[in-house]
TrEMBL record:
Protein name: UspA domain-containing protein
Domain UspA: 1-141
Lineage: Archaea, Methanobacteriati, Methanobacteriota, Stenosarchaea group, Halobacteria
Family: Belongs to the universal stress protein A family.
Organism: Natronococcus amylolyticus DSM 10524
InterPro entries registered for this protein in UniProt: Rossmann-like_a/b/a_fold, Universal_stress_UspA, UspA
Top-level taxon in the UniProt lineage: Archaea
One Pfam family, short name: Usp
Length: 146
């Protein structure tokens, strides 16, 4: 049984499912929901939303705290404690580094289950985490979502 579980959390349905899966599967573990504020890189950074270049603005942190609120509510509904953490940078890099640096026993990541060209075009944080993490990774995909 794992003692410390990291769940990357972005407020999506797959992230909610991953958190629920972590609570059910690792009933005695300490669970942390990690949100990574993505910093736009290079050319695309000029076209995306408000300025969130380093250091991350207070407004971006407030948004991240609000985004984590459903995770806290989900934990409370299941009578579970939940730690939360906010980092900034490239999500897959930050998830892998944080799990390793902080000594997590496993990462439970949600996946949309996209395949083929849609996955290539949209990218996949889950896939990058699985490929690069020295920490064991569980990919949780809701079987009811097609």
């Amino acid at each position: 049984m794992s003692d410390r579980i990291l769940v990357p959390y972005d407020g999506s349905e797959p992230a909610d499912y991953a958190l629920e899966f972590a609570f059910e599967t690792f009933a005695d573990a300490d669970v942390t929901a990690l949100h990574v504020i993505q910093i736009p890189e290079g050319y695309w950074g000029a076209f995306e939303g408000p300025d969130i270049s380093p250091p991350v603005t207070e407004k971006a942190r407030e948004y991240a705290e609000e985004l984590l609120e459903p995770a806290r509510e989900l934990a409370a509904d299941r009578d579970r404690d939940l730690e939360t953490e906010i980092l900034s940078g490239k999500p897959d890099d930050q998830i892998v580094a944080y799990a390793e640096e902080e000594g997590y026993d496993a990462i439970v990541v949600g996946s949309h289950g996209r395949e083929g060209i849609s996955r290539v075009l949209l990218g996949s944080v889950a896939e990058n985490v699985v490929r690069r993490s020295p920490t064991p990774v569980v990919v949780a995909r809701d079987p009811d979502v097609k």
